[in-house]
Design brief:
Distance between the termini: 34 Å
Radius of gyration: 17 Å
Shape: globular
Order of helices and strands: EEHEEEEEHHH
Helix content: 25-40%
Largest sheet: 5 strands, mixed
Number of helices: 4
Strand order of the largest sheet: 1-2-7-6-3
Strand content: 15-25%
Length: about 170
């Protein structure tokens, strides 16, 4: 699944069978796919550590999905989960490609970033360099924050569905 960095989030946000609702409050980061260029560069070790912690401990508000997305840049040998990219933090390990996580923006209140947890693999193994403001949000994420990405996502989708219903009724 490919989205440019800072696209409005629209992954699975349906209004009816053939209409997708983009959530302008949520910006996509790191939704890469083979055949699309992406920025490359170095991410400092401290930020990578915090990113590992967010992914492995699932402290960032996570939305899990059924099944796995495989890295389009790597040659896939099989569907064996043992060959799936993983991230480790101490004795904990997490498979990548099965979830996304959301972070609140530090520069725009009420705005969130959505990134696949495979972003760690993209950074470490494929040289992807996420935007600075996303990396700053990772670095400064308040680990004691208690909130639910799933609930926030559902509220935003419902808000936009209601807006569309209101617009349709006022035609």
């Amino acid at each position: 699944m490919y989205f440019k960095d800072f696209d409005n989030y629209s992954y699975g946000t349906y209004y009816g069978p053939d209409r997708i609702i983009p959530l302008d409050e949520v910006k996509t980061i790191g939704w890469l796919e083979n055949g699309h260029d992406y920025p490359k560069g170095v991410v400092d070790e401290q930020t990578l550590y915090y990113l590992r912690e967010l992914i492995v401990t699932q402290r960032a508000a996570e939305i899990s999905y059924r099944g796995y997305h495989y890295c389009d840049f790597c040659e896939r040998q099989s569907s064996n989960l043992d060959e799936h990219p993983k991230v480790k933090l101490g004795s904990q390990e997490r498979s990548l490609g099965c979830a996304e996580f959301w972070l609140p923006s530090l520069t725009a209140p009420g705005t969130f970033y959505s990134a696949p947890n495979l972003i760690y693999h993209y950074i470490v193994d494929h040289g992807y360099r996420p935007p600075d403001e996303f990396l700053e949000a990772v670095y400064r994420f308040p680990f004691n924050l208690q909130w639910s990405a799933s609930s926030t996502r559902q509220q935003l989708v419902e808000k936009h569905r209601q807006r569309i219903r209101d617009e349709e009724q006022n035609k």
